[in-house]
Structure formats: structure tokens, C-alpha cells
Amino acid sequence: MIRGLWDREMVALLLLAALMPMALVWIWFGGAGAVGRLGLALIVSGAWHLIFMLARAQPPSFAGAITALAVAMLAPEDMGLVRIVLGISFGAVFGELVFGGWGRNVLNPATVTLAFLGFGFPTFAWPDFVLPVAWAAIPAAGLGVLFGVMPFGILAGAALVGGGTALLAGGPDWVVPAAAMVLVLLVADPVASASTALGRWLNGALYAALVLLFASGWEGASPVQLCVAAALLASLAAPLLDDIAIALWTLQRRRRHGGS
Amino acid sequence: MAAPGSFWRTLTAPLLRENPVTLQILGICSALAVTTSLATALTMAASLTVVLTLAAGLISLIRRHIPDTIRLILQIVIIASLVIVIDQILQAYFFEISRALSVFVGLITTNCLVLGRTETFARHNPPVPSMVDAFGNGLGYSLVLIFIGCVREVFGKGELMGRQVLPLAEQGGWFTPLSLMLLAPSGFFLLGGLVWALRTLMPEQAEAPDFAPPEHREAAE
Hints:
The complex is a heterodimer. Chain A is built from 11 helices and no strands. Chain A is mainly alpha-helical. Chain B has one domain. Chain B has a two-stranded antiparallel ribbon with strand order 1-2. Chain A: This is Na(+)-translocating NADH-quinone reductase subunit B. Chain A: GO terms for molecular function: oxidoreductase activity.
């Protein structure tokens, strides 16, 4: 699929469009501060894409804007210019660009940035969100699935585990808004998540299970912080989940068709 | 005997051109573990260099008498004895640092760098070139450890050798410690960045790519 409509930038643009409901509501409620954070993140991320284009002839990508949006929304507040720039540089370079650009990365660069900032500067407060921003995650996820750029299995797997626990045991509801936003912004990423059908369901379920585990056992963590940690671990496990899915498929074929 | 020029080459080759840590990725477990401060990194580097040089000399002396079938056991016995001596000396004279290093001095025994040099070089060469080669490799290892130790201590605590070099924000300065630098992952990041920088500067160190890209490149325009 090289000559058709669906090249990498098309996916990036549609993903960006799908995230727009959430981004616009967030900017509406955040005001000038939100615009400033987004602008800074866009400049730093764009600058690194430009540097890698000039130095290694890697085509820049609109995916940099997705990274910038996720970091601007989820990063700890009042960190100061130097730390934010350091964090985004680390995430963009070591999370994505050294691997050859968007599409070849192992982890979502925004997840790497947020984990770096969270572990590197643990004293800064993670952001809180007004509820409308979290509600906007639902249309964002819907658009993403409709466009075919967000994996349905991940969203469904996470909803299944999260919703099931809530129904059966009345899980921690204070974590749900942050969990939904992180799910849409970081976990349901077409590159760094699992890519087999079963693997995607497992990936989403694992993310939700980790969020529930952290929410019940991690004293003093803010919702965004524990969701980012869950996203990082879930995306580290994604290749393993794919491998399990493929192994199961091979096993099934062998039982059906015989052979060694 | 070899010419003096070749000694110089044997000694300096492992510093940058064939650095055991950045080119062969040997001995990185300790390089990551003990580099949270410069003092421990220096102690570890000195201990390893001494052990490596002496072990190479000893093994090279008896190289014609080592039976092939038990050569690894023999080498490890020699290295372990030297490590125990070094460990006792550290405990006697540098107790604080020896406690900070904890098991990692003892683990020099299993450091792949030491066994790698004795196995590949000292077993086939006379004592003096072996010791020169071992000393050079020890220096190359030390260079990497000192670099990473400096960076991690300065950015993680704002100190160097325990003395404050960057004014801390909580004492009225401007510097907020990057506590990630004191955690193990930052050792990986720094070492990875160092390897990347070295291989960019010296492209002949870079490994051959695992996969060849396809001929017709039209994707992702």
C-alpha cells in the first residue's frame, strides 16, 4: 500500500483530527495557559523533527504534533521551560526519532516524555482535568475508530475490563476520567500498541487492569501519574502480547491441520 | 620483543578506537551500577584496572601450562583471588566507599571484560604485552565510568566528588536535581547516547545493519 491514499501522513492527520474534540475542549477550558503549553510543545517537537530531517534525511511527520498535544495536556504543571524542553527532547529523540521516525518506534514518544518527567522530577504536581475534557475522550475515540486509525480492540478491551470491574466490585471511579484520556492519547496509538487482533484486546485489558491495580495499591499517586505508568508498562508488554497471540494461532492451526 | 611503537598502540587502542565498553559492550553491568557518583566510579575503575592487569600478567606467565579443558576454572580462580585481595584492601582503607560499592567489587570476578581479555589475549601472548593490553583496556573502561559518573553526579545531585558545584534551588541557587540520573535507567540512556555519539564520530565502529532497506523507496513521503 504505497501508491494509495493511505500513507503515513494520512494516518497521522486523521489521528490528529480524531483527537481534535478533546484538544479543543481542553483549550476552551484551559485558556491562554493551555495554548502556551501546546505552542511550546509543538515548537520543541517540530524542531527535533526538523533537525533529524536535515541531519539524517528522515521525513518529518505530523505525528510530532500528536506527541506535542499529548505532552501538553498530560505533563506535570509549572515545570519551567528547561525541564519541559529537556523532557520533550528526550522523548522525541530517544522514543521515536533514533529509530527512524514515526512508524518505527517501539514506544509512544509522548509516553516516554511523560515517564521521564514523572520519574525525573517527582515533586511537580500532575494536572487535574475538568470533566468535559474527559467526556470529550469518547467522541475522540469514536472518530478514531471510524477513521480506522485507532485500534478498536484496545479501546474495547480496556472498556471491558474497566467496566466489568466497576459493575462487579464498584471500582475506583476517581481514576476513570484520567484513565479514559490516557487511553485515547497514549495507549490507543496505532504504532506502539499491539497489532494482532487478540493482542489488541489483551493490550487494552492489560492497561485497564494495571490502572485498577495502581489505583488500589499506589498510595499518594495522582490519577494521571498512575495512568501514564500503566500506559508505559502496557506498551512495553505489547510485543509480548502479539507473540502470545501468534503462538496461540500457530498452535490452533497445528491442531486443526496436523503436521509438526 | 615487540617494538615500543606497538606497545603504545596496544595501550591506546582500547581507549577510543576499540573501547571495550562502547565498542564491544563488555562489562556494562558494573558500569551502570556504580556510576551514581564519581567517587565510587573511580574506585571501581581503579580496582578493575589493577585486577585485570595483574590477572593478565599471571595467566600469561603460566599460559603454556594451562590445560585447555580447565582453563576457564583456572582463570576464574586467579581473578577471584586478586579480587578478594582488592576487596580486603578497600575494606581496610576506604570503608565508606567499599560499603557504597557493596557487591560490585566482588562481582569483578564475573566481569566479562576481565575474562574476555585474559581468555583472548593473555593466554596467547607474553606477559609484558598482555599486561600492557590489560592496562589499556582497564583505562578504556575507566574512561567510560568516569565520564558517566561525572554526568550522573553533577546532574543528579549538583555535586562532584561530594562537593557542591551547582547551587541547589532549595538553598537559594537555580539548580533542581534531576533525580532520574540517580536511577538505573539513566545509566542505560547515557551509555546508549555515548555509544551513539562515538559511532557517529567514528563510523567504522558501527555495526552492519540487520536488514537491507528495499530498493524502491516510495513510502512515507
